[in-house]
Amino acid sequence: MIEQRHGAGVWFVPADGPELATEQDAVDLVGATYGLAAEVIVVPVERFADRFFDMHAKLIGHFFSKIVQYGFRLVLLGDVRAHIEASDAFRDVVRESNRGRSVWFVADLAELDARLAAVG
Asked: Where are the domains of the chain?
């Protein structure tokens, strides 16, 4: 189901389901939106495998690229502070992502709404 939030069609990936980490997982999420008029895919951080946040594994970049390549914005919803504290490289990814328009890390729905309202 798609929610309209600040003029954008937003699809919330269910909190329950298999762990996500790979480029194929990103393609599967895109496929799940087929025909739904989604522009933004919101994924709870709990859905991501721990290895996803390991910058040496290079999974995060491939996952992000695939979602964006298909024309979607990606939002990781939830608390990533432990991962930020564990990795300077991951902290940099979060900071750079949040400066852009394609991939965001947000703590909660209020922050998501504020970001969507700001981009119109």
From this structure: 9-119
pLDDT in tens, 63-120: 999 999 999 999 999 999 999 999 999 999 999 999 999 999 999 999 999 999 999 7
> How buried is 105 (Cβ within 10 angstroms: 0-12 exposed, 13-18 middle, 19+ buried)?
buried
Instruction: Give the whole-angstrom CA distance, residue 40 versus residue 71.
Output: 9
**Residue 48, number of CB atoms within 10 A of its CB:** 21
pTM: 0.95
Measured CA distances, 6 to 9, 50, 56 (Å): 9, 32, 36
How much of the chain is in helix, strand and coil states, percent to nearest 5?
50, 20, 30
- The bridge status of strand 73-77 relative to strand 103-106 is parallel
The topology under which CATH files domain 9-119 is Transcription Regulator spoIIAA (3.30.750)
Decide: 46 and 82 in contact? Cβ < 8 Å.
no
Q: What's the residue count for the chain?
A: 120
